[in-house]
Amino acid sequence: MHGRLYGSHEKFCGRKQRSGDLCSGPRHDTAGYGRHTCAVSYTIELIRNHAHVTISHPALSVLDRYDCRNHTELKKTLKEYLNCERNYVKTAARLYIHRNSLLYRLKRIEELTGIDLDNEEIRLHLMLSYLLEE
User: Fold this and answer.
1) Domains in the chain: how many in total?
2) Residue 128 gets which letter from DSSP?
3) What would the mean pLDDT of 71-90 be, rounded to a whole number?
4) Which residues constitute the domain of residue 117?
5) Rounded Cα gap, residues 6 and 132, in angstroms
6) Tens of pLDDT, residues 93-124
7) Are both 19 and 85 inside the same structural domain?
8) How many Cα atoms within 13 Å fall on the side-chain side of residue 93?
9) Are 60 and 133 in contact (CB under 8 A)?
10) Domain harbouring 97, CATH code
């Protein structure tokens, strides 16, 4: 099974590189890596094409509904916060908001969703969910 998936991964990356799409970054073929930089894209593609269940984190739906009703951007805030690796200063700058506003939004997100943003497994699930939405 592993060989079949890896071979498919190689084909996927080759197609993406030829089309000028994703995965055009450098290869990491040194000892300890052995994977293309497009492994995440490949994994997302596998999930989209083969998953028969929804694995998106329910917090995103909660934030979607809240944002729609209240004209807020909590879902976008959470995505930027995760993309900035939980760096308050960088996230606030990207969102063009004050750091205290960011802290308020993050507290509100945790209250609305019940998620613990200090839990790395939850953060990974959230990031995967955002990637699947793209």
Assistant:
1) 2
2) H
3) 98
4) 58-133
5) 21
6) 999 999 999 999 999 999 999 999 999 999 99
7) no
8) 7
9) yes
10) 1.10.10.2840
How does pLDDT run across 28-38, given as a tens digit for each residue?
Answer: 444 444 454 57
Residues in the chain: 134
Same domain, 26 and 65: no
**Residue owning tokens 């094409």:** 49
- Give the 3-state secondary structure of 59-123: HHHHHHHHHHHHCCCHHHHHHHHHHCCCCHHHHHHHHCCCHHHHHHHHHHHHHHHCCCCCCHHHH
- What is the distance between the terminal CA atoms of the chain, rounded to a whole angstrom? 28
The CA-atom distances, in angstroms, between 126 and each of 17, 67, 92 are 27, 17, 19
pLDDT at 41: 77
Nearest to 64 by CA among 124, 99, 112: 112
Element (H, E) at 58: helix 58-70
Total Cβ atoms within 10 A of residue 28: 12
- The pTM score is 0.70
Structure tokens at 1: 């099974």
What's the DSSP call for residue 25? S
Backbone angles phi, psi at 43, to 5 degrees: -65, -45
